[in-house]
Amino acid sequence: MVVVILEFRIDRRSGVPAFQQIVQQTKQALRLGVLVPGDRLPTAKEVSEISAVNPNTTLKAYRELEREGLVEPRPGQGTFVRRSLARPQTGTDSPLYGELVAWMSKAGEAGLEQEDVAALVASAMEKQYGEMTTSARSTGE
After folding, report:
1. pTM (2 decimals)?
2. Are 9 and 25 in contact, with CB atoms under 8 Å apart?
3. Separation of alpha carbons 126 and 141, rounded Å
4. What tens digit of pLDDT does each residue of 69-122 get?
5. Are 79 and 62 in contact (CB under 8 A)?
6. Banded model confidence at residue 126, pLDDT cuts 50, 70, 90
7. I want to staple 71 with a disulfide (CB 3.0 to 4.6 A). Which of 10, 17, 25, 65 is the partner?
8. Is 52 helix (H, G, I), strand (E, B) or coil?
9. Residue 46 in 3-state DSSP?
10. Backbone angles phi, psi at 103, to 5 degrees
């Protein structure tokens, strides 16, 4: 059993509920291959201690991930990753990731701030993939 130390970054000013941020960040870790099937997620108590989130909030997020078939609780052992969302081209060791990091570096050198980069990326994604879905728009995904 592998225990992955995943630190959730909760932005209380974002307007996105904390449980939804945990779901989003877990999915991101699954897409990037940071979490793989068999990994144990941090316990609700561990998340509470590190991220100052109520344990019930973490449990709500884990229930949502379970409902989606991504994790499974094992009584007395914890919550484990059931399936990955990773694709070979989405890993941090992929050529696309390297190109994106290089682009981000150029954007920083050009004086763009994080919000500027986020706006450009959102615009490019919308152009490439079409209108954002209502779900993605409301959850910030």
Report:
1. 0.70
2. yes
3. 13
4. 999 999 999 999 999 998 877 767 778 888 889 999 999 999 999 888 888 888
5. yes
6. confident
7. 65
8. coil
9. helix
10. -65, -45
- pLDDT tops 50 at residue 129: yes
**pLDDT > 70? residue 138:** no
CA end-to-end span of the chain, whole Å? 30
Looking at this protein, which amino acid is placed at residue 21?
Answer: Q
Give the residue among 41, 34, 9 at the shortest CA–CA distance from 22: 9
Share of the chain above pLDDT 70, in %: 87
Look at residue 21 and give its three-state secondary structure.
Answer: helix
DSSP result, 67-113: HTTSEEEETTTEEEE------GGGSTTSHHHHHHHHHHHHHHHTT--
Q: Which residue in the block uniquely carries the two structure tokens 């969302």?
A: 85
Q: How far apart are CA 122 and CA 98, in angstroms?
A: 19
Comparing C-alpha atoms, which of 66, 79, 9 is closest to residue 39? 79
